[in-house]
Amino acid sequence: MLSRGRSFSWVGLVLSLACAFSSVRAEEDDPDFTVTDADKVYYGKGKHPESPAVIKADDVWAEIPEYKKIVEDDLDEDDAEYHILMKKATERFEKALKDEAKREDHDLIAEVGAVKSNNGKKIPDATKDLIELVTR
Where are the domains of the chain? Predict the structure, then answer.
């Protein structure tokens, strides 16, 4: 009779663990955020970031000094200076993305609209922060 009572408690323990495991799995299956357009991810990777941010990249690029010079001087791909300035502008943009991600602990930075919240959690807009970083 004792062994039967012990078997029952083991069954109860196993069932409890199974229930606990399934609730953890359910939480993993319902991520807080989902990337909806991977082509507009500028930093990070993955379909379900834990701490994303969004930016308006056009607004950031418009403030990068090297890019501003390209626009002001009406340079195009046929001009050697265009390629030199574009390389520097791209490096500045990428460094700003990395610095912002590190500073604010973002695992992904994408264009506004490229990440959605699945539960109403706010996705911070880091456009102003990136503009500050690219203009230093």
Answer: 1-30, 31-134
Both tokens assigned to 37: 């357009």
Give the architecture-level CATH label for domain 31-134.
2-Layer Sandwich (3.30)
Largest Cα–Cα distance in the chain?
92
Q: Model confidence over 4-19: pLDDT tens digits?
A: 555 455 555 556 666 6
Please answer whether residues 119 and 32 qualify as being in contact, where contact means their C-beta atoms are separated by less than 8 angstroms. Answer: yes
Residue type, 22: S
Query: pTM of whole model > 0.70?
Result: yes
Question: Residue 127 CA to chain centroid, in angstroms?
Answer: 13
Between CA 2 and CA 128 the distance in angstroms is: 69
The helix (run of H) or strand (run of E) holding residue 93 is helix 80-104
